Amino acid sequence: MNFFMQYDVIIIGAGPGGIFSAYELSKLCPEKKIAVFEEGQPLEKRKCPIDGKTVKHCVGCPTCAIMNGFGGAGAFSDGKYNLTNDFGGTLYEYIGKKQAMELMHYVDDINVACGGAGTKLYSTADSGFKRLCLQNNLHLLDASVRHLGTDINYKVLENLYAKLKDHVDFHFLTPVKALSITADGGYAAETLVMGQMSTGASSDLQRATDICRRMVTQYGMSDRLGLMALSTVSNPYLDGSTMMNCADSTSSAADEEIHKLLMDCYADAKNILVEHRALLDEIAMYLLSKETITGDEFMAYVNADSKKLTDGSEAEEAPEQDEAPSETD
Questions:
Q1: In a 10 Å sphere around its CB, with 0-12 CB exposed, 13-18 middle and 19+ buried, how is residue 162 labelled?
Q2: How far apart are the C-alpha atoms of 14 and 18, rounded to whole Å?
Q3: Which of 4, 136, 169, 263 has minimal CB crowding within 10 Å?
């Protein structure tokens, strides 16, 4: 894969969460470059070799056609979608129960429009079963359930992919093994080129620290501390500030993990810049003469065999400077 391929948004996994994230982003932000990285196969290539006759047991495929691929683990299920706040997640804790239900019904409307029309929406509300539970001092978890069925569920996924494929880049058989934050590239560039740090890249460092802190304290992305949320967002509607809710010793261990992540990412950023130092210098020379460079100009340059920038104007020679790139259409 091209190292310099850049996206505004990368979604990991083409399960329902990834699919509907891509759907909404492509609709609301059509100018954004969006990619989905998925470990498994496209929907039409998800074929399990177990047939019950010649193959009766799992043969250990490189990627499981049942569990992985477009549509996620539920692609071949009977297509039941629960619309409730009573179980299945805690989205309502962040956006409120009313908005959470509105979002669930919005997703249900999409499923219906993409092939699920005519399927039934079941509900426990005002049902005889609910009354029976109340009579016996039992609490029934209320839910509405859209039952698509296996065949229609598959058709809905097919139609969703057809809607997305021209607007979103899907990279199948592309497992994501690790995440590396390179927002501290500004510091890395300064130390590589000038041999010292300055205050100029402080925003890079702040942003990288915030990302690493969330990874460790909110997302459980630490081998040392494990799958445990150590902080809560005190007010998600204002500044999004967090509050640690763990022992002081655990908080100190989290700080150590955050520092380790930052140093690892700093090393990665520096290695990338060292490997592509010539490109770094060439772009810097261009900026010295033009002061600004658009994202499209940058990508046109790094992807071009001739390493020439394109801005749509008539071809002209760049100012005479050593190793400065020339400018053409």
A1: exposed
A2: 5
A3: 136
Burial class of 260 by CB neighbour count within 10 A (0 to 12, 13 to 18, 19+)? middle
Residue 138, helix vs strand vs coil: coil
> What span, in angstroms and rounded, lies between the C-alpha atoms of 248 and 256?
13
d(CA 329, CA 327): 7
- How far lies 227's CA from each of 216, 219, 230, in Å? 9, 8, 10
Tokens coding 182: 């390179």
Predicted pLDDT of residue 303: 74
Model confidence pLDDT, tens digit, residues 275-285: 888 888 888 88
The label of the residue with tokens 């296996």 reads 150
Return the half-sphere exposure (C-beta side, CA atoms, 13 A cut-off) of residue 100.
16
pLDDT of residue 85 exceeding 80: yes
Q: Residue 139 burial (CB < 10 Å; 0-12/13-18/19+)?
A: exposed
Dmax over CA atoms of the chain, in Å, equals 89
Placement of tokens 């445990």 in the chain: 228
